[in-house]
Write a structure and sequence with these properties.
This protein is α/β, with parallel strands linked by helices. The protein is built from 3 helices and 6 strands, in the order βββαβαββα. The chain has a 3-stranded antiparallel β-sheet with strand order 1-2-3, with no helix packed on it. A hairpin with an 8-residue loop joins β2 and β3. The two termini are 21 Å apart.
Length: 127
């Protein structure tokens, strides 16, 4: 569902993580949307591969940010991954410009990576 610039997604967790449901709020521009005490609830950041994206964020240094959140970058198959991304703890997914049937592989990579990250770093949010 969508409410006030927020998209809400409810997903069922992998059985080995309890199999319960978890709800995510997907927002744009967290610097203007989140209070300082809400940043601990951020579990993932989709990045564009440039550090200017994080200007004004509570954790504006990408190395710090991606030690606290699951970082994910989506690039086109065959395209060069931005050099700046190389030093960040960020997973990369690839999509094809022409063969969109493979998008599910990228999507599964995101959700599996996020659940793995949360199982280690954000277990308290599973409850």
């Amino acid at each position: 569902g969508k409410r006030g610039g927020t998209i809400t997604i409810t997903r069922r967790l992998n059985q080995r993580l309890g199999g319960g449901e978890i709800t995510y709020d997907i927002i744009d521009n967290p610097a203007t949307r989140l209070k300082n005490d809400e940043w601990n609830r951020v579990v993932a950041v989709i990045c564009q591969g440039a550090s200017w994206q994080f200007k004004g964020w509570r954790y504006s240094d990408p190395v710090d940010l991606f030690s606290r959140t699951f970082g994910f970058y989506v690039g086109l198959e065959g395209a060069t991954v931005p050099a700046e991304l190389q030093g960040w703890n960020c997973k990369t997914g690839k999509v094809s410009r022409d063969r969109r049937g493979g998008d599910n592989i990228c999507l599964a990579g995101f959700w599996n990576g996020l659940e793995e990250f949360m199982a280690v770093h954000k277990q308290e949010l599973f409850n």
